[in-house]
Amino acid sequence: MPFSIDALTQALQQAGYFADRRLAVAAFLALKLQRPLLLEGEPGVGKTELAKALALALGRELLRLQCYDGLEQREALYEWNYAAQLLHLRAAEGSGSAAEAEREVYQPQYLIRRPLLQALQAPAPGALLLIDEIDRADEPFEAFLLEYLGEYQVSIPELGTVRPVVAPVTILTSNRTRDLHDALKRRCLYHWLDYPDRARELAILRARAPAAGEALSAQVASFVARLRSQPFASAFQRAPGIAESVEWAKALVALDTLELDPDVVSDTAGILFKQREDVAALTRDLAGSLLQPQEDGGQDIRP
Q1: Where are the alpha helices (DSSP H) in 69-212?
Q2: SS3 of 156, please?
Q3: What is the pTM of this model?
């Protein structure tokens, strides 16, 4: 792993992710202490992207467990290949005892490994397991995860306890659609991931939408930052995330836009927002207000 926080920050930048100091410290400690890292924040702030960039920076395989309501243990950990087991039992009929045949079907070759088990059994340098949107799963599934999160091991009744050769790096994300149980939180390091400031968003735009150029990227970063700030943010149900600002910059390039104006902002509102009410709220007049110089002496968004 990177031997310092600065080295980790640089490695993440090389993987296309621009982390601030507090996030880099949290990620570094998760690696150093071999603890899961729980990232909470609004949708679109870069929680999942951090896991992807960290896997790339560490040279680890990325395994993803996408959570949803009704997710079951067998979909996260393992299940037995019942068809193959049945074929084995039929082939063994008449050639030995039933008890011996039954023991033989509970062998690793009949095991279908899901993300948690794959992460524990990954060869060096190990895997990075992303447990994405854990808040979408239910409380019994949270309880099931406690053994893995606390000890990096799982119990399979027919085979015993499975422990890793190399401890997996584990990232959990939550959009906070519901509160997570304290028992899960205690087993993790915690970081609240907020929207990036203007400078960091500009760096992201330069890296991911280089065709936008310096001037247009600066306008996009300033405009989106003001959209997320009060009093403008109160006009919308959900502020645009980083992915939306990058997509917007690319769309503006496709439209040969050199400078933001109220018309082009209103025309492309469906890229920044995904709710009909929010698209309707970004009127031409409001766009004009957002493009004006700030009263506190800030610079006009337009060049």
Answers
A1: 73-76, 82-92, 98-105, 115-121, 139-151, 182-186, 198-208
A2: strand
A3: 0.86
- Report which secondary-structure segment, H or E, holds 272: helix 269-272
Q: d(Cα 209, Cα 203) in Å, to the nearest integer?
A: 10
Between helices 98-105 and 82-92, what is the axis angle to 10°?
Answer: 150
Q: What is the DSSP letter of 63?
A: E
Predicted confidence (pLDDT) per residue in 102-151, tens digit: 667 777 778 889 999 999 999 999 999 999 999 999 999 999 999 999 99
Q: What is the pLDDT of residues 156-214, one digit of tens each?
A: 887 889 999 899 999 999 999 999 999 999 999 999 999 999 999 999 999 999 999 99
How far apart, in Å, do the first and last CA atoms of the chain sit?
A: 43
Asked whether the CA dihedral 46, 52, 55, 61 is positive or negative, the reply is: positive
Kindly state the percentage of the chain with pLDDT values over 90: 78
- Count of alpha carbons within 13 Å of 264, Cβ hemisphere only? 19
Residue entry with tokens 């490695």: 11
Residues in contact with 9: Cβ distance below 8 Å, sequence separation at least 6, in sequence order:
19, 21, 24
In Å, how far from its chain's centre is CA 228? Answer: 21
Question: Rounded to 5 degrees, what are φ and ψ at 80?
Answer: -85, 145
**Two tokens at 24?**
């880099």
pLDDT in tens, 32-89: 999 999 999 999 999 999 999 999 999 999 999 999 999 999 999 998 877 777 776 7
The pLDDT of residue 33: 96
CA dist., res. 166 & res. 58, Å (int):
13
The tokens for 147 are 């053994």
Secondary structure class of 67 (helix, strand, coil)? coil
* Residues written for the chain: 303
Fold type of domain 5-71+119-192: Rossmann fold (3.40.50)
> CA nearest 144: which of 154, 159, 136, 133?
154
